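Instructor's aside before we start: the two examples that follow are unrelated to each other. I chose them only because their records fit on one page, so don't look for a connection. First example below.
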Amino acid sequence: MSAVQQLISVPFYEDTVVLLGQDDHPYVAMKSVVSNMGLDWKSQHVKLKANSDRWGMVEITTPSVGGPQISSCLPLRKLASWLMTISPNKVKPELRDKIVRYQNECDDALWDYWIKGSATRPGAQPVNQRIAMSRHRLALGKELLRTRDAGMRQMIHQQLDEVSRAMGLPTPAIDSLGYAAPAVPDVLAEFWAALAVLEQKGVAYNHASNANVLAINLPEISRLLIEHGQPLRVDNTLKQALWQSPAPRCLRKNHPVTSQHTGKSVRCWVFEQPTT
């Protein structure tokens, strides 16, 4: 066992691979590689130790905040051969792309870092282009977070996936960035249609003085609908649907509003005023 003489943290897509120098020879800390690829380190460690003559694995002591750590390292010249022992067809489907990426590019990137001090992926974008794509990716994520229409969310997520893949980054799951509005129940459509009938008859039911807001008292609405031949049961199903209403969007429920009709405080469900 020997102490490390040079330690380099090499960025590789979204991962970090640790490169160590020992007697002017480069070694790779294998735990970081194996873990980054989504493989089980314990089983791979056993395989590497079982065939130490082939792989030439050594133990190198590295400094850390918690004190010296022992790293199992493979000579960099052996990395490509070891990577090819991993069959992409025998791992979980979600790991295959990353396995292939490591097999195709990782050893070259590490050699470039060891020899040149940096590495550039084939076909990598210029820095200014990558910054622009990163900003676009962030904007798409924010847009997805605040969009509730299911169809629009799918379109935004497709764009986010394309940009993420182009940058070599993982695509966030669509459900991790906001959520789609539930489908509008039939009872909700019936409710707004019934209110439209009241509107046509000139029935005053909107207590809001603000023209951009609709404020309705549900017990009063229930009574008015019955009086005007539009009976509709105001139950928990309807209330839940109203609370989740995407258009007009519900802003508050059971909120005290000073009625424009009586000047008194009335408990209302408050919505954005639907546009006509």
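Example two begins here.
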Amino acid sequence: MDAALKRHPLLVTALAPVIPHLLGSAFNIWYNMTVVDPLLIAAGLKQRFIDTVIVWNPIAYLAAVAIWTYLILSLRPAFQRLRRAENVPADQLNRDRRRLVHLPWYGAAISGASWLLGAIAFLVSLAITGRPMNAQLFWHLPISFGISGFIATTQGFFVIEWATQWGLFPLFFQDARPDRLKGIRPISLRMRGFMWAVSASVCPIGSLLLLLFAPPSPGTNPLLFGVFVGVIGVAFALFSALLIGRSVAEPVDELREAAQAVTQGRLDVQVPLRRADEFGALIGEFNLMVTGLREKEQLRQTFGAHVGRKAAEEILTRDPGLGGTEQEITVMFVDIRSF
């Protein structure tokens, strides 16, 4: 996967939301077949549900794919020019950089809107038939779309973020720091922790509570069904935690190894990660610090070759600045006869 990400980073980023949405759709289909289908008792409701699936799914998926494809293709001109080491106009490059940083948010917005509108569309489609609807449908259809949408949106967000940071950031931010880009709203560490808490606890527990208060669907065992949904929620929560943990642990490990190298006297190390969050700022400042230490060491060695290392260190340590200093000194002149 890492090799494919390096060879085709734009394609991998474009395909990043596919698996999360397939998993969300699989849960949605299973839930509808198991819980919702037995509730479609009135004549014509089941056929209307099938017709809505046939009409809504192509519309929703095509619209979401079209918007997502447009966002990805908008990065392609700059991507190709950067790969060929060609110059990209500054305004275009900054615009594409901002779009790249916000790409996970765009993906989450597209996904969340699609699932939310899907729940509304199915309820409205069934309601306008004029046939009596089981009240449980107003519980279970939103639960079906809500849990499925949560799976697709959260997992898609983190996978897109991973793909952009490892595949596209090194190219688009070769000579710039993402954290210093103006007009961006990257996900902060606090927000990342909040999303993990929601993913790991609130959503699985919330799903179980919804199932607890929702009237049981005919033909289902509420206890076993609730346990199954809870297990699925916890599994995806753990996967979210794995992705979040990797995004936090990796820069910490990189910084730790680089710091150890500096303590051993290696001043040529640089942390190559490109991040737009707090880790990006920390990594950028660390790299600047190491660069400053390296330049100071080079100056000390060069200066010390002419005035002596001890004198050079004292001058560099005191750093009188451009204004200079006034001191009383004693100078001894010695003339060696016949030298």
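The radius of gyration is 30 Å.
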